[in-house]
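Predict the holo structure. Ligand: (R)-mevalonate.
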Amino acid sequence: MAFGRGKVILVGEHAVVYGHPAIAAGLDVGVHAQARASADDRLCIRPWGRDVVADERSDEPLGRAFAALLRSGREGRPASPVCVEVMVQIPAAAGLGCSAALGVAIAGALDEWLGLRRPLDERERLALAWEREFHGNPSGIDTAVSLRGGVMWYRRGQAPEALRPACALLLVLVDSGQPSSTREMVARVAARREAQPALVGSTFDALGALAGRMREALARGDRDEIGRCFDAAHDGLCALGVSTERLDALCERARSAGALGAKPTGAGGGGCAIALVGDEGRAGRVLEACAAMGARSWLVEVGR
Ligand code: MEV
């Protein structure tokens, strides 16, 4: 059974598309996939009730992405038809890297089926062929962290770097309940960059500098400073126009309930926010505060 992790971005989403550094962490939950013989190439995503045939010309992005991944993955090998069955543990369109986790798990299942031990970077290339069908211009951060896990420093075009935080981070993940499309949000930021190059450029620079500040705070195990970096990153995401009133309100509520800092995570426009908490007692208060606002939330630990 192959696995692709979900992820949270701690700092630097959107700026990372334009070459600035970002930090992401892998989750313990994500997507499992397994391949078996079949009459035709098909992808079956059980919890979504989706069963699609691989077809590069399909109007259906899942069918196109699966066909792109199979074409890349089978290069020069005999191709008996395969069905990949998928179990998804994380919400889609919520900023938790569901589509990258699907790509990583499906690429892994294909390798198991073909009996291959493809090197990590080749498997990454395959999973990116999938991801490109969903996002016109992915930086690659979601796929990189889904494949490797841990806490990662990522800069587009460079090898990802594993960070060793001096403390684990307890995060409350809060789902705004508003679905969001990464493709649309990345396009929206590109349009804003076109219209307001100075503002967006200086916001990207500030987010890149924050990534450096957070990296140092992680190395020292300074949770208060990491929380301040979350809040400053939230301001940056507001300046890019990717937060929403609901995400802002959830972050504010989490802070009043004792979070050290909070921010949207992933593409924004809805999806999830993350709130850093110092201990399980505060986590309980933040979880209750989110529930009082009708938001689903849960506790995860990253950087152990
Ligand atoms: C999405 O999880 C992160 C973005 O920066 C897009 C990307 O890096 O590909 C919004």
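The chain has two domains: 2-154, 164-302. Residues 9, 13-14, 16-17, 97, 135, 138-139, 141-142, 182, 186, 266-267 surround (R)-mevalonate (CB under 6 Å).
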